[in-house]
Design a protein that fits this description.
Length: 85
């Protein structure tokens, strides 16, 4: 009789957890998605604020700073391979 009760309790707990998961999983996922959207929105808003330095209609041209290449910089050693017959 104790074995039957144990099996019944395990089955009931399994179905209860399954039912709770069906109800709570969508709510938890919606909460996580909203929080993620909020964080990305804050980051994007902060990024966009920095870009609005020029007035509307004003043209600005920004160039990359001139970077002198260093030809004496040794990258690696050249190895010539030969085929052996």
């Amino acid at each position: 009789m104790v074995l039957l009760q144990t099996i019944l309790v395990v089955i009931l707990v399994y179905y209860a957890v399954k039912l709770l998961a069906k109800w709570l999983a969508p709510k938890l996922l919606n909460y996580a998605v909203k929080k993620t959207q909020q964080r990305f929105g804050e980051q994007f808003g902060n990024y966009q604020d920095f870009g609005n330095k020029a007035a509307e209609g004003e043209t600005t041209i920004s160039k990359k700073p001139f970077r002198k290449s260093n030809p004496s910089k040794k990258v690696g050693e050249y190895i010539d391979f030969e085929e052996i017959d």
